[in-house]
Design goal:
The chain is α+β, with helices and mostly antiparallel strands. The chain is built from 16 helices and 14 strands. A hairpin with a 5-residue loop joins strand 11 and strand 12. The two termini are 40 Å apart.
Length: 488
């Protein structure tokens, strides 16, 4: 298929179909002396855009406010539960939707600029995005996408000579990101908690029309509970994928949860290295509310908050108990399935959940680096010494015991060892976005060196393929360097 340059895409802005109280139309407030740091051909391809038609001037023009025909910059209003407490007035304080790209293959993506200036929802903040935060988000989305996990995608990163007043002076960046939708649980919560039930109905109707058109065949009264069920299922699936890849979002507030099941607002996230269930990458999360092993329960809690926001549209205005059952079942099913595949198990056995749980407890007890462990498990051989696994472990005995259980379970599989090995190497990545890798990209970028960013982006695109000369990128930091102080 011939790919189009960006400016030939059909752009529309459906958000302006909503009542005026749902959004603000506001122009981009350009930064000084902007330049393209990175343009992601991989994500652009999803739009049917040619790399040559994407990189360069068009991106820069857009970031500077020179919009393409059909684009309209819109900031939307939302609320949300932040760390368990409802905040009534949030909104796109530093993000603007440019509109939806209607691609030739029938797909549609909402494209946003993050860091493009003040909006009506910026509160006391500055509407800007520091370069290091932009890099964190830019890499995080692509790291998840490379693992096949739903996420906002990173289209382009634009740097500038504008300096931001933060703890440490940093330059401002603008990130161009895309998703099926950037609408959040908080978009529904906002109107519900203001008792604006007509607006709740309009917002839910909009979500169904735009993103779940398959539900339009049901009568109108049935659609809210159906769409809610779909969102709950997608959320359960998303969190299950996070858990199986050791990803911690870090800020699972309901205003950071999309209505279309994509990971959003990757600010203080992290990928598990040395396995520990209480891993918490967000330094602002003192109580560890959003630590790794809390995420499934928080996902459920967030779905409950969403269901409450839907309640005026549900039969008898009551949240059906089955919703939360659906969440649990769907979470468990998805998690087990992905973890089995990571372990090279293709049959279902009633003790698999126990085997997985013991495996993770062993990783924690023995201080084992989890990405290396899963990757190396692909070459596990029954009866062999398996030194490359034991060398990861601070104590051999618990690992030996677990490998014995694993070996017994493997013996029930019908798949030949070399096929299992190949399959396991396709689901257990060689390259994981370790913290020291991101920090290194940030440290270099603030000095004007963007090569490391491009290098990591290339690895994240195909994290299962080992690249000669890049072995060090698969390893933990030998000595953890002091982390760059990040301010959002
Ligand atoms: P976050 O914690 O980044 O998810 O943001 C929570 C809310 O604060 C959202 O409404 C953001 O749009 C807003 N926000 C965060 N940082 C800024 C900023 N620098 N300027 C304006 N709004 C911001
Ligand atoms: Mg947010």
């Amino acid at each position: 298929m011939n790919r189009l340059p960006l400016y030939q895409i059909n752009w529309q802005q459906p958000l302006t179909d909503l009542p005026a109280s749902f959004y603000q139309q506001i122009a981009v407030q350009p930064l000084q002396q902007t330049f393209v740091i990175h343009a992601n051909g991989e994500a652009a391809r999803l739009l049917g855009v040619s790399a040559s038609g994407f990189i360069g001037q068009t991106v820069l023009d857009i970031a500077n406010g020179k919009l393409l025909p059909g684009m309209q910059t819109v900031a939307t209003v939302y609320g949300g539960h932040q760390f368990g407490i409802y905040t009534s007035q949030l909104g796109d304080g530093r993000a603007l939707s440019l509109g939806e790209a209607h691609c030739r293959n029938g797909q549609r993506f909402d494209i946003q600029l993050k860091g493009a200036g003040l909006t009506a929802y910026s509160r006391t903040l500055d509407g800007r995005l520091p370069l290091a935060s932009a890099i964190y988000e830019y890499l995080g989305g692509e790291a998840l996408a490379g693992l096949g996990i739903a996420s906002t995608r990173s289209l382009a990163l634009v740097g500038s000579k504008t300096t931001l007043q933060r703890d440490e002076n940093q330059s401002a960046a603008i990130m161009m990101r895309m998703a099926r939708s950037h609408l959040r649980f908080g978009h529904i919560e906002y109107f519900h908690h203001r008792d604006q039930f007509d607006e709740v109905k309009k917002m839910v109707g909009y979500v169904v029309e735009q993103h779940y058109p398959e539900l339009l065949t049901f009568n109108e009264a049935e659609r809210p509970s159906r769409v809610l069920t779909l969102i709950v299922r997608q959320t359960a699936e998303l969190v299950a994928h996070w858990q199986s890849e050791g990803f911690t979002h870090g800020v699972m507030n309901t205003d950071n949860m999309t209505l279309t099941g994509e990971t959003l607002d990757l600010g203080s996230y992290g990928f598990m290295e040395c396995f520990t269930q209480d891993y918490s990458p967000n330094p602002n999360d003192d109580q560890h509310r959003y630590q790794f092993d809390q995420q499934p329960e928080i996902g459920r809690w967030n779905c409950l908050a969403l269901a409450e926001a839907f309640s005026s549209l549900l039969p008898n205005k009551t949240i059906p108990a089955r919703l939360l059952r659906i969440y649990r079942q769907h979470y468990q099913q998805t998690y087990l399935q992905r973890m089995r595949t990571k372990l090279g198990l293709y049959l279902q056995h009633p003790d698999d959940a126990g085997l997985i749980k013991n495996g993770l407890a062993t990783l924690q007890l023995c201080g084992i680096d989890s990405p290396l462990f899963f990757r190396r498990l692909a070459t596990f051989q029954a009866g062999a010494r398996n030194n490359y696994l034991f060398e990861l472990s601070q104590q051999p005995e618990p690992l030996r015991q677990w490998l014995q259980q694993y070996q017994q379970r493997l013996a029930q599989e019908m798949v030949a060892a070399d096929i299992r090995r190949k399959r396991m190497l396709q689901i257990n990545p060689a390259y994981v976005l370790r913290k020291h890798l991101v920090d290194n990209v940030c440290q270099r970028a603030v000095q004007g060196d963007y090569e490391e960013l491009a290098r990591i982006m290339a690895l994240l695109k195909s994290p299962y393929e080992e690249v000669a000369g890049m072995e060090a990128y698969a390893m933990p930091a030998e000595v953890q360097k002091p982390s760059l102080q990040r301010v959002s």
